């Protein structure tokens, strides 16, 4: 099959780029894969996109098109201009120029793709929905959501939520399939918006070569140092924890906007000997086994790849009580949950886990590995591409 992925990514460091690269490289072993990038190179290619087998096209927006899109994105989140059915139609008309949509449709038709997948940004896949009527008959269109349902209907604010509800009703039924990352999201999109939806988990980034011995007495946080990922919660909770437990330490992997604040917080509270900021690390499969418990305090999350990475290395997970963590952690018995956004509750849970026998959690964590193998995930993608079980 000829398959095209449409993406905004430059394929630099980040969870979406990593998953896209892994899925496309695997599909390229049996299909003809292309990427249509909506940004100008240089291609960063942080995770080894196989450019010997994957064709790469790009067409960046003009300056006018970028400004127009940026203005529309500000208006849709900050004003009620597009919060009605008529407003959603107006937004769709104004966000992308006719020429930009025509270029994309012409590319898809000229290449005669069997399937087109919008792979980055569910709200941005509106673009593919808008060009779908111009595509050749038989071209399957698929939207792939990497964010949580609550990200669209909560975190982006009430104006965007009202707009998006109308946009889903008006445009997203044009897709042959919508892919989401959790059963929670699938149920919401199916029951509340009557969309044809299927859940496919993201594949693990690696196969664990070794497992944690659970003896290190260290918590680990891995991810962007941002409020969204809860890096502030992890540090605040550990500061409170450190006043009641003098043995366990915290190791942090990642970079992000909160790093200066975290460095100041560590200095202010005298945690230099208890907290270590490692920065970004390219081989976490070697780092996870050095630690005993993963902290996953994200305020909102579509999937959270670090959870399944750490679990494959035998780490119990202490995670925020958000839908994807209930599905991956609570339901599997691979760890504990705490009320999302509550650093005091996180501290209490850390104290509990530090005193517990972690072996049962670790055993359950390792048992989940077959759910996220690349082979299993690609088999599910092939079913979708062939129109089976959708």
UniProtKB/TrEMBL annotation:
- Coiled-coil spans in chain: none
* Residues annotated as signal peptide: none
The Glycosyltransferase subfamily 4-like N-terminal domain extends over 13-202
According to the UniProt entry, its GO molecular function terms are: glycosyltransferase activity
Question: Which Gene3D superfamilies does the record match to this protein?
Answer: Glycogen Phosphorylase B
- What is the name of this protein? Glycosyltransferase family 4 protein
**Species:** Akkermansia muciniphila
Domain Glycosyl transferase family, chain residue ranges per copy = 214-356
